[in-house]
Amino acid sequence: MINYEKIIRYASLSAIIFASSMFVSLSLFKDSEKHVKIARRPAPVVDLDQLCSTEAKENSWRYIVIHHSATKTGSAARFDDYHRNKRKWEHGLAYHFVIGNGSFSEDGAIEVGERWKKQIHGAHTANMSCNRIAIGVCLVGDFENEGEPTNNQFESLTNLVQHLSRKYCIPLTNIILHKHVTQKGTACPGKNFPYAELQTRLIQIASKESNHI
What we know:
The protein is of the alpha/beta class. The protein has two domains: about 1-35; about 50-210, Peptidoglycan recognition protein-like (Lysozyme-like, 3-Layer(aba) Sandwich), CATH 3.40.80.10. About 40% of the residues lie in helices and about 10% in strands. It is built from seven helices and five strands. It has helices at about 5-35, 50, 75-85, 115, 130, 150-165, 195-210, and strands at about 65-70, 95-100, 110, 135-140, 175. It has a five-stranded mixed β-sheet. The longest helix has about 30 residues, at about 5-35. The model is unreliable at about 5-40 (pLDDT under 50).
């Protein structure tokens, strides 16, 4: 005689075991997902000698001043339009270089402004004496309220600053932030900008180069 009660008991037990094993498997799968790193596109590789070539006689640059745009998005073209048409600045874009964050230009892309190509003074600080001898580099982003530069932006900035400082014999002490310039108060490029890390990277690069001489 078939014992239906026993069959039902075994079936229920099997269902419980199956459900438990599925729960454990799903939990392990979710945990493994936490350790999967999302692949990021590396910073664009560029020939800095070619990128930084000029159309006019080179200026005697003595400083590099680093800025943030204080906006979540942007690009050289957009900032140029604002500076030229809203601010009514004859030469447009205030900076010599802009480094994109992936919003309107590629993440880590180094964009060259007309001021650099024509070796014209910048308009990136309120100190005109500084603008005449300082290269202005702006990273798209708000590093006061929205975190730090992207990895690609930081890599591109490091490479660009290293290239320019070597080309124009600009010492590390003259690679400064906008807020270091003598002018009206500003927090630019924001409290989250990794200035100490940038200095360390530049020292490391210079050290490696000197060891290969």
